[in-house]
């Protein structure tokens, strides 16, 4: 579905998509990461924007397989920044982005392999001093350095935002699904390797990594007696009745509120 | 006067025919090269025509007799005419033979004409309607001009000054006849089928289909592998010129009899596919132009005249162009269930399914445009080796209580039981459990691959994803090469076909049996005893991949007979069985039509009056059981057999033959 995105800029819109190595949840096989692939899809749907894919990582065999997955979407090349396995990719990505100077950077909300903290876009935005937007559902238009985007909120809600470029935006599963990856373009596509000094992630070297356990789910307590109430309870998403909307508060007040909530929930003791 | 005009006419027509033939050959040579032994093919041509092609035509006795009289008469008349009237060898013997030949042709053309009075819908109209008249013009005129040669007509009759009118009429008739029969044969008239058809038979891409003097005439149904190593070779067919030259030649051979469309389940269901039109579209693409001149049944819902193509233009419009801007719409290609009914019916032995899969390969491998659930299913196959995206470690969960012997433990058995992807489907699990019960009752030395098994790649290949197919196939072949077994038995005809007919090209040669064949053998060997059948009337649905693809029509019927069942055959059964709609990834691509193919098939069952339909394929079971409001129950043959099993006397059982070599290992594991 080609979007009608008006690009009134004199220069062609340039979009960089940061892609990572995905991992199938059942078999653990390397693949294109779902959220990153959606980011590529969103970039490709921007009409005549020039799209550049970048990946920073150790360039192993799994990396090759995963990158072919992105190339198969009709991408001619992926720029692969080779890093040591224990490197922190943020400095390398920041360097390359500063040099390439795209107007918009798209990426998945979090990686499927490695740390998977979802912090890379924030750290990059901090380093580069760019705006960061999370959970993009659609890019409506990009005009004169300002992008109008729809941000996905829980329960299918959307919020229209105007973002001054350059910006970094993350994409999650509320964005349109990625197109099929085809064998021919995947085989022809180029993996352009380039070297960049690795900065070892000192913190991570001290961590112990173990497979994640399934998080316990909060039980829904349905007190109602009537079928209608039970149906409503079943259809409703588990939502927090006692939420609190904080507007125009200082960062300290906000942090205090979050801290209190975490204590209440038993996350912090 | 005639003696001067006739040679001129004949040799002009022949010269024009030669020019037309060269032009036509140039059209075919736009295709890619194909390894064909030209000389051997030409040498085999007479037999292929007179025996193999005639066998197919002779399924309709009236037409085969008509064709023998007309075509035989024409070939003889044409040769003799060149000798007698062209070269002027006016011997009475040749003249007499020529009279006979043209008379035979005339009789034949009368029957051709009769068939055209109220032609069935499957026949193309247009230029084909004038063919009987042209045949008559040729035969009558040749007969008349030959009469003086044998002295049956006074020589003077055509010489006198008063007879100029007669001469003009005769010359006109001769010219018409020659125009259709010689000139039209190579310039694209209805008679093109004779010229292209003969060469198509000689240079057929599946020479194994034809019989030889030593017998044979086997089935050749496995798809041909793409060479993925060669990065310059096109991945499938994008434009008409991407077909091999003998495929293009094959399309040109079509005689538009419409037997394919009468058999096509997709057309009957109102999906936008008609095999005959598809072949004609390929001819249009090869020559360049629009389909406006097509005079047969269109694709349902797609008016004729809106599509056009060129030899080097895309067959399916790329995303940038609107649908209909090209030769064929993608949904036409995705409607096919690859049931091969069209190929089975085609008297010209055209390979429709090969062409469709070739074009699908381009759509999937190059464009990434597998419709509907196609992309998801292919992703599942790549990531989990099964269609549904299930955990590959759960492949044997259904048999947790069965203690199935594993190949990994035994290393060597008689029978490797191939479970297929149906092991994730709750309905098919019942069939598998029944089959295991039967194998145990017959004390067969068998084992399963368990979690080492992967999808056979059938669906991936038919959805055009040759890369995933070859990846699955190569890994399956590597797994199978670790173990020793005499044969593979499976209850899935699709796995059966792929393992037996398509793995060979990739280096895996196995003896594969469908469970019905194997059960029939066990019964014949006295290893199974059945209680008499007490149920109601039963009919049997032939799975395409068992019947038409592999020629196994008898074994399932023999098993049912052994169970004491007297079959009520459906009108369309055996090699003409109607597809259940489940093949070729059709349920995945799910192109809408006016009705569903399985509904039509269950209607066939209903018309047969049977209360139960026996099947031998997990796809057929799923498709037919998915039909609502039916009077008939759907059971797999294995289930019927398992229900009828009778314990044999104890003494006999202990004496049954078990492979001594494998027994100790087997017990170690089972205990």
Provide a brief overview of the structure.
Chain B: Residues 650-671 are annotated as: Disordered. The complex is a heterodimer of chains A (269) and B (671). Chain A has 269 residues and is an alpha/beta fold.
**Strand segment tally of chain B:** 11
| Number of discrete helical segments of chain B | 28
* Uncertain ranges of chain A: 1-10
Let me know the average pLDDT of chain B.
91
Helix content of chain B: 40-55%
Please report the distance between the alpha carbons of the first and last residues of chain A: 49 Å
Mean pLDDT of chain A equals: 88
Can you tell me the CATH architecture of the largest domain in chain A?
3-Layer(aba) Sandwich
- Computed over alpha carbons, the radius of gyration of chain A is 21 Å
What coarse outline of chain A follows from CA principal-axis ratios? Answer: globular
How do the strands of the widest beta sheet of chain A line up side by side? 10-9-8-11-7-1-4-5-12
Based on DSSP secondary structure assignment, what is the total number of beta strands of chain A? 13
Pfam families (chain A): ETF
Domain Electron transfer flavoprotein alpha/beta-subunit N-terminal (chain A): 21-202
Organism (chain A): Vreelandella subterranea
Keywords (chain A): Electron transport, Transport
How is this fold's topology laid out?
The complex is a heterodimer of chains A (269) and B (671).
Chain A lengths: L13 E5 L2 E3 L6 E3 L1 H11 L5 E8 L3 H11 L5 E6 L4 E2 H12 L3 E5 L11 H9 L2 E13 L2 E7 L5 E7 L2 E5 L11 H6 L1 E6 L3 E2 L1 H4 L21 H9 L15 H14 L5
Parallel strand pairs in A: 1-4, 1-7, 4-5, 5-12, 7-11, 8-11
Antiparallel strand pairs in A: 2-3, 6-13, 8-9, 9-10
Helix pairs in contact in A: 3-4
Chain B lengths: L1 H27 L9 H20 L3 H26 L5 H24 L15 H16 L17 H24 L4 H11 L8 E2 L2 E2 L28 H8 L6 H5 L1 H4 L6 H13 L1 E2 L17 E2 L20 H5 L6 H5 L6 H15 L7 H11 L22 H4 L1 E7 L7 H16 L4 E3 L9 H5 L3 H15 L3 E7 L2 H10 L9 E3 H10 L13 E3 L13 H9 L23 H4 L7 H12 L3 E4 L2 H8 L7 E4 H8 L5 H5 L8 H8 L1
Parallel strand pairs in B: 5-6, 5-7, 7-8, 9-10, 10-11
Antiparallel strand pairs in B: 1-2, 3-4
Helix pairs in contact in B: 1-6, 2-7, 3-4, 3-5, 4-5, 5-6, 6-7, 7-8, 17-26, 21-22
């Amino acid at each position: 579905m080609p979007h009608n995105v008006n690009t009134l800029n004199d220069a062609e819109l340039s979009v960089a998509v940061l892609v990572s190595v995905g991992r199938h949840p059942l078999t653990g096989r390397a693949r294109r990461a779902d959220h990153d692939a959606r980011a590529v899809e969103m970039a490709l749907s921007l009409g005549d924007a020039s799209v550049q894919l970048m990946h920073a990582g150790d360039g192993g065999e799994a990396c090759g397989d995963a990158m072919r997955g992105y190339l198969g979407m009709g991408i001619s090349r992926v720029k692969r920044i080779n890093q040591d396995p224990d490197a922190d990719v943020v400095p390398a990505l920041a360097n390359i982005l500063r040099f390439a100077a795209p107007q918009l950077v798209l990426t998945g909300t979090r990686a499927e392999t490695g740390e998977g903290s979802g912090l890379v876009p924030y750290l990059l935005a901090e380093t580069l001093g760019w705006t960061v937007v999370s959970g993009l559902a659609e890019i409506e238009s990009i005009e004169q350095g300002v992008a109008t985007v729809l941000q996905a909120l829980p329960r299918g809600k959307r919020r229209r935002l105007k973002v001054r470029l350059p910006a970094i935006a993350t994409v999650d599963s509320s964005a349109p699904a990625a197109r099929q990856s085809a064998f021919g373009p995947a085989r022809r596509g180029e993996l352009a390797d380039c070297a960049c000094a690795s900065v070892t992630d000192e913190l991570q070297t001290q961590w112990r990594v173990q497979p994640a356990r399934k998080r316990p789910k909060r039980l829904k307590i349905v007190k109602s007696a009537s079928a209608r109430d039970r149906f409503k309870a079943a259809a409703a998403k588990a939502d927090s009745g006692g939420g609190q909307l904080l507007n125009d508060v200082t960062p300290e007040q906000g942090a205090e509120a979050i801290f209190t909530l975490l204590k209440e929930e038993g996350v912090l003791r | 006067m005639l003696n001067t005009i006739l040679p001129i006419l004949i040799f002009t027509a022949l010269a024009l025919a030669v020019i037309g033939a060269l032009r036509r050959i140039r059209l075919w040579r736009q295709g890619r090269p194909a390894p064909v032994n030209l000389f051997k093919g030409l040498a085999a041509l007479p037999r292929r025509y007179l025996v193999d092609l005639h066998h197919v035509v002779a399924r309709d006795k009236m037409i085969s007799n008509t064709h023998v009289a007309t075509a035989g008469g024409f070939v003889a008349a044409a040769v003799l005419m060149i000798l007698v009237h062209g070269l002027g060898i006016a011997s009475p013997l040749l003249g007499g033979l020529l009279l006979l030949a043209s008379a035979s042709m005339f009789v034949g053309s009368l029957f051709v004409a009769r068939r055209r009075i109220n032609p069935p819908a499957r026949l193309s109209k247009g230029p084909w309607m004038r063919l009987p008249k042209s045949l008559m013009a040729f035969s009558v005129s040749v007969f008349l001009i030959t009469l003086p040669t044998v002295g049956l007509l006074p020589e003077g009759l055509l010489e006198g000054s008063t007879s100029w009118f007669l001469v003009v009429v005769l010359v006109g008739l001769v010219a018409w006849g020659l125009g259709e029969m010689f000139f039209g044969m190579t310039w694209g008239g209805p008679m093109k089928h004779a010229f292209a058809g003969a060469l198509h038979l000689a240079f057929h891409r599946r020479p194994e289909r034809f019989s030889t003097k030593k017998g044979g005439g086997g089935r050749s149904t496995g798809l041909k592998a793409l060479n993925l190593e060669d990065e310059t070779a096109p991945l499938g067919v994008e434009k008409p010129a991407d077909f091999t030259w003998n495929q293009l030649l094959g399309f040109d051979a079509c005689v538009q009899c419409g037997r394919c469309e009468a058999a096509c389940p997709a057309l009957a269901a109102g999906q936008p596919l008609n095999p005959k039109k598809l072949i004609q579209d390929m001819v249009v693409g090869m020559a360049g132009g629009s389909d406006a001149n097509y005079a047969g049944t269109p694709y349902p819902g797609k008016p004729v005249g809106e599509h056009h193509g060129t030899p080097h233009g895309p067959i399916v419009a790329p995303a940038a162009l609107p649908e209909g801007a090209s030769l064929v719409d993608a949904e036409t290609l995705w409607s096919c269930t690859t049931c091969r009914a069209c190929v089975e019916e085609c008297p010209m032995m055209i390979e429709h399914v090969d062409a469709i899969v070739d074009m699908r390969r381009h759509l999937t491998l190059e464009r990434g445009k597998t419709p509907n659930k196609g992309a998801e299913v292919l992703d599942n196959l790549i990531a989990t080796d099964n269609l549904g995206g299930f955990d590959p470690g759960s492949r044997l969960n259904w048999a947790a209580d069965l203690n199935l012997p594993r190949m990994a433990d035994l290393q060597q058995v008689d029978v490797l039981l191939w479970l297929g992807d149906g092991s994730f489907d709750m309905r098919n699990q019942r069939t598998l459990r029944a089959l295991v019960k039967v194998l145990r009752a017959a004390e067969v030395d068998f084992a399963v691959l368990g979690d080492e098994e992967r999808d056979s790649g059938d669906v991936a290949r038919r959805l055009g994803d040759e890369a995933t197919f070859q990846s699955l196939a190569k890994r399956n072949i590597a797994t199978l090469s670790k173990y020793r077994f005499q044969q593979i038995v499976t209850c899935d005809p699709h796995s059966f076909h792929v393992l037996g007919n398509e793995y060979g090209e990739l280096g895996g040669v196995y003896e594969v049996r469908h469970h019905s064949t194997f059960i029939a053998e066990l019964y014949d060997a006295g290893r199974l005893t059945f209680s008499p059948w007490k149920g109601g009337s039963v009919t049997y649905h032939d799975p395409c991949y068992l019947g038409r693809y592999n020629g196994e029509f008898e074994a399932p019927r023999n098993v049912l007979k052994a169970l004491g069942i007297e079959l009520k055959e459906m009108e369309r059964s055996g090699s003409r069985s109607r597809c259940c709609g489940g093949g070729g990834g059709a349920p995945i691509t799910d192109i809408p039509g006016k009705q569903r193919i399985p509904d039509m098939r269950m209607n066939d069952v209903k018309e047969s009056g049977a209360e139960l339909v026996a099947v031998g394929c997990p796809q057929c079971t799923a498709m037919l059981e998915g039909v609502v409001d039916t009077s008939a129950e759907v059971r797999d043959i294995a289930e019927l057999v398992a229900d009828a099993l009778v314990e044999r006397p104890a003494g006999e059982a202990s004496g049954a033959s078990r492979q001594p070599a494998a027994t100790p290992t087997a017990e170690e594991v089972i205990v």
